[in-house]
Design brief:
The chain is built from nine helices and 13 strands. By secondary structure, the chain is α/β, with parallel strands linked by helices. Strand 9 and strand 10 form a beta hairpin. The structure holds zinc ion.
C-alpha cells in the first residue's frame, strides 16, 4: 500500500508515492501556474495524482492515505486554509475542496511542518523525541516537533522562526516588521547582502557574474575577502537566531535544510562554532545537536505522506 505526499509550492506542485517503509518510490511535478482559483487548483492537483498513479499502473484504490503540505496556515479540523499569501487564500475551505476530489482520506499541514515531519520520520530526526527543522530558502521557515508530535500551536501557525526580530528597526521584512531573522539569514537576504557589499568592492569575484547563494559560498571558498565577510556576517545573524531557538526549546536536534544547506560543511562548521559559546546551556553535559537536514526536497513529500503517522490522526 502506498501513501501520496503532496508538496504544494507557489512555483511547483511536487508529489510522490511513498511506501510503508517511507521510501519515496516515484515522484512527479508540474508548475503551479498561479493565480488560480481554489477549485481549479484542487482540480489540477487531483488530476496530477491520477496521472502519477496511472504512470505506475495504480488507481486510488491502491492508496492508503494522502497528505499535503501547504505554504500557509492550515486548519485541518475545519478543512480550511486560513491564510496563504502566495495563493491569495483568506479562509478558503481548500482542504475540503481537495478531500471532495479524493477517494482516500486527505490530511493537510503547513509545508514547513510537513518537511520537518518528514525529516523526523525518515531523515536526520529518526529516533529523536524533539527537534526543530529550519529551512533557509527564499525565506526562513521551520517546523517544530515536541514529544513526537508536530507542534502547530493553538492555530496551526507555529514555527514561524524566520520572523523573530534580531535587529530592532532593522531591514524591512515581508511580514511587515523590521529586523526579522528572515531579512538577514534567508538565501534572499544573503544575495542582497552580497549585492550591497559588491557595490563598494568592484574587485570582488562576486562582481563578475549574477549573484546567488551558491556564488557567495564559492567566492568565499576561493579566498574572496568581500564574500568571506558577507558570509561571516550572515552566519553571525543565523547563529543568533539558532541560539534563540535552542535556548527556548532545547530540542534534541536542530537541523538546517532548504537551498542554502547545499553548502554543507561550509555552512554547518562555522555555524556550530558560533552557536556553541552562545547557548545558555553551554555548561550542560548534553546539548542540542546541530545538523544538516538529510532528505532535501523529498522531506516535504515524505512528511506529507506520513501525516497519518501522527498520534490521533
Ligand atoms: Zn518578518
Amino acid at each position: 500500500m502506498y501513501n501520496i505526499g503532496i508538496d504544494l509550492g507557489g512555483t511547483n506542485i511536487a508529489m510522490g508515492l511513498v511506501d510503508d517503509a517511507l521510501h519515496l518510490v516515484y515522484q512527479v511535478s508540474e508548475p503551479t501556474n498561479l493565480p488560480k482559483s481554489p477549485e481549479r487548483l484542487a482540480d489540477d492537483i487531483h488530476a496530477l495524482v491520477v496521472r502519477m498513479l496511472a504512470d505506475r499502473g495504480l488507481t486510488e484504490a491502491d492508496v492508503g492515505c494522502a497528505g499535503i503540505g501547504i505554504p500557509g496556515t492550515v486548519n485541518q479540523a475545519e478543512g480550511t486554509v486560513e491564510y496563504a499569501n502566495n495563493f491569495g487564500f483568506d479562509n478558503v475551505p481548500f482542504v475540503r475542496l481537495l478531500q471532495e476530489r479524493f477517494a482516500c482520506r486527505l490530511l493537510a499541514a503547513n509545508d514547513a511542518g510537513a518537511a520537518a515531519w518528514g525529516e523526523y520520520l525518515a531523515g536526520c530526526g529518526q529516533g529523536v523525541n524533539s527537534m526543530v527543522a529550519m529551512t533557509l530558502g527564499t525565506g526562513v521557515g521551520g517546523g517544530i516537533i515536541l514529544n513526537g508530535r508536530l507542534w502547530g500551536g493553538c492555530n496551526a501557525a507555529a514555527g514561524e522562526m524566520g520572523h523573530m526580530v534580531l535587529h530592532t528597526g532593522g531591514r524591512p521584512c515581508t511580514c511587515g516588521r523590521k529586523g526579522c531573522l528572515e531579512a538577514y539569514a534567508s538565501a534572499t537576504a544573503l544575495v542582497q547582502r552580497a549585492a550591497e557589499a559588491v557595490a563598494d568592492a568592484p574587485e570582488s569575484l562576486l562582481a563578475r557574474a549574477p549573484i546567488d547563494g551558491r556564488a557567495v559560498f564559492a567566492a568565499a571558498k576561493a579566498g574572496d575577502a568581500t564574500a568571506a565577510r558577507v558570509l561571516d556576517e550572515f552566519l553571525t545573524d543565523l547563529a543568533e537566531g539558532v541560539t534563540n531557538i535552542i535556548n527556548i526549546l532545547q530540542p534534541e536536534l536542530l537541523c538546517i535544510g532548504g537551498g542554502l544547506s547545499g553548502a554543507g560543511a561550509q555552512l554547518l562548521a562555522p555555524l556550530r562554532k558560533k552557536v556553541a559559546p552562545m547557548i545558555y546551556s553551554r555548561y550542560s553535559r548534553r546539548n542540542t545537536r546541530l545538523e544538516l537536514a538529510s532528505l532535501g526536497n523529498a522531506a516535504g513529500i515524505i512528511g506529507a505522506a506520513g501525516l497519518d503517522r501522527q498520534e490521533g490522526m
